Amino acid sequence: MRRVVVTGLGMISPLGADVETTWKNILASKSGAAQITRFDATDYKCRIACEVKPVGHEYGFDASLEVDHKIQRQVDPFIVFGIAAASEALRDAGLTDMTEEERLRAGCSIGSGIGGLPGIESESLVLANKGPGRVSPHFVHGRLINLISGQVSIKYGLMGPNHAVVTACSTGAHSIGDAARMIAMDDADVMLAGGAESAICPIGIAGFAQARALSTGFNDTPEKASRPYDVNRDGFVMGEGAGVVVLEEYERAKARGAKIYAEVVGYGLSGDAYHVTAPHPEGSGAYRSMEMALKKSGLSLADIDYVNAHGTSTPLGDELELGAVKRLFGGHLATMSMSSTKSAIGHLLGGAGAVESIFCILALRDQIVPPTLNLDEPSESCLGVDLVPHVAKQRKVRAVLNNSFGFGGTNASLIMKAI
Amino acid sequence: MSETADRVKKIVVEHLGVEAEKVTEDASFIDDLGADSLDIVELVMAFEEEFSVEIPDDAAEKIATVKDAIDYIDSKL
C-alpha cells in the first residue's frame, strides 16, 4: 500500500479564521463560546454557542477573501467555511497551481454532518409564506453536503475522486480516513479531506436541545459550559467552522520537497449497533474503532503520546469514551495525555474530526498538547488519566490518536505520526 | 436613466456580485456579467418582487440583456 502524508492544513473556527490563529488561541486556553448572535435565542433552553466570529472581531472571518460574492449569496455558510478552509490548506501545501495532469489525480473528500440547515429552514419559510414560485433556484445545490467538494473542485480544477462523507459527528475523521485510503489504493495522488458545519440556527439549536444533547445550565457563563470530564458537565456547546487537510502520496510529497506534517498510519471504523443517540453502554464501538486504527498503524500503545478525545461534555458520552480508552491503553495510560479541544471551540459536528485531527498534527509539530478547559472537578473515573486540565502542556509527542463518534452509533479513529 | 433602469441595475449588481460600471443596458447577463441560467431565474424572481409584476417563464426566457429586462418591466408597469 502507498504511504499517505499530510502536507497542508486549513481551518475556520470559533477561535480563528485560519490554522495558526486558532492554534495560538487554543494553546492560550481561550474559549470561543458566547451568547448566540445569529438569531434571538431568548426563548431557547440553550442560548449559547461557539460561533465563527464576524468581520471586525479580533479573529473574525472575512468570507470575501476566499469566496466569490455570488457564491456566498447562493450557498449555506458551511460551504463557505469549507471552501475557505480548503483554500488555506491548498496554499499551505503549495498546490494551488497544479498542472492538468496533476489535477486529474487530485480530488476532494469534504463532508458535513447536517449540511445546509439554516438555508433549509429559511427557504421553508419562503415556501410557506410566499409560495413555491419564490423558492431560490439555488436552494438545492446551495444546501447539499457534497457541494463543498463540488465547489472546491470547480475553483481549483480538481478532477480526481469527488466524495463527501455524511456520518454525523464522525464525518471529519471518516473523510480523512477514506481519502487516505483512496491515495493508498492509487485512486488519487492528492486529496483535500475534511469536514464543515454551520447549524447554529433556530431549528438546529431547538432540535439538539430537544434531543437533550446541549448544555443548558451555563447560559450566563458560556465560556464555562463546555467542560468535558468535569462532574458538572451537562451537554455539548454547538460550534461551527471547517477543517481541511491536504493528503498526499508520500513519494510524491518527498520528491517535490513538500513540508510534511505527519503520516496517516492508522484508520479504524466501527458501528455501535445499539441506539440512535446513546453510545453503547460498554463503549464497545469506541474501543473497536481505536483498536482497529492501532492494528493498522503497526504501532504499539506505548507509541501513542496524545489522544484528542471525542469528549463532547455530555454526561454519558465522556464517561464511556474514557472507559474505552482506559481499557485499551491499560498499563500505558500513565505515559499518555488526552484532552478535549471541544472545551474551547465547542462541537463542530461534521467538522469536529477534521479540526481535531489538525490539532493532533500541530501537537506533533510543536511538541505540546492542548488543554481541556473547565476541568475543575474531574469525575471519579478520570483518576490515572492525564486530561491536561486548564493549560496546555509541553511534552514529547511521537504519535497521536483522534476519536470521533456520531449519532447512529458511527465511530472513527485516526492515528498519525511524525515522519 | 429611468427609475426602472436604476432599480434593475442595483438588483443585478447585488445578485451577480459585478461592478456597477459593467452593468450597461447592452450587457448580456450570460456573456458579459457571468450569469448562468439559474442566476437569470433568480434575477427574474428578484425583479418580480421589486416591481410587483409577474414575469411568466416564456417572457423570462427572452430576457438576455439588461435592456430586455428594463423594457419588459416598463411594459408591465
Automatic annotation (TrEMBL), chain B:
<dbReference type="InterPro" id="IPR006162">
    <property type="entry name" value="Ppantetheine_attach_site"/>
</dbReference>
<keyword id="KW-0443">Lipid metabolism</keyword>
<dbReference type="GO" id="GO:0000035">
    <property type="term" value="F:acyl binding"/>
</dbReference>
<comment type="pathway">
    <text>Lipid metabolism; fatty acid biosynthesis.</text>
</comment>
<dbReference type="InterPro" id="IPR003231">
    <property type="entry name" value="ACP"/>
</dbReference>
<keyword id="KW-0275">Fatty acid biosynthesis</keyword>
<keyword id="KW-0276">Fatty acid metabolism</keyword>
<keyword id="KW-0963">Cytoplasm</keyword>
<dbReference type="GO" id="GO:0009245">
    <property type="term" value="P:lipid A biosynthetic process"/>
</dbReference>
<dbReference type="GO" id="GO:0005829">
    <property type="term" value="C:cytosol"/>
</dbReference>
<keyword id="KW-0597">Phosphoprotein</keyword>
<protein>
    <recommendedName>
        <fullName>Acyl carrier protein</fullName>
    </recommendedName>
</protein>
<dbReference type="Pfam" id="PF00550">
    <property type="entry name" value="PP-binding"/>
</dbReference>
<comment type="pathway">
    <text>Glycolipid biosynthesis; KDO(2)-lipid A biosynthesis.</text>
</comment>
<dbReference type="InterPro" id="IPR036736">
    <property type="entry name" value="ACP-like_sf"/>
</dbReference>
<dbReference type="GO" id="GO:0016020">
    <property type="term" value="C:membrane"/>
</dbReference>
<comment type="similarity">
    <text>Belongs to the acyl carrier protein (ACP) family.</text>
</comment>
<feature type="modified residue" description="O-(pantetheine 4'-phosphoryl)serine">
    <location>
        <position position="37"/>
    </location>
</feature>
<dbReference type="InterPro" id="IPR009081">
    <property type="entry name" value="PP-bd_ACP"/>
</dbReference>
<dbReference type="GO" id="GO:0000036">
    <property type="term" value="F:acyl carrier activity"/>
</dbReference>
<keyword id="KW-0596">Phosphopantetheine</keyword>
<comment type="function">
    <text>Carrier of the growing fatty acid chain in fatty acid biosynthesis.</text>
</comment>
<dbReference type="GO" id="GO:0036104">
    <property type="term" value="P:Kdo2-lipid A biosynthetic process"/>
</dbReference>
<feature type="domain" description="Carrier">
    <location>
        <begin position="2"/>
        <end position="77"/>
    </location>
</feature>
<keyword id="KW-0444">Lipid biosynthesis</keyword>
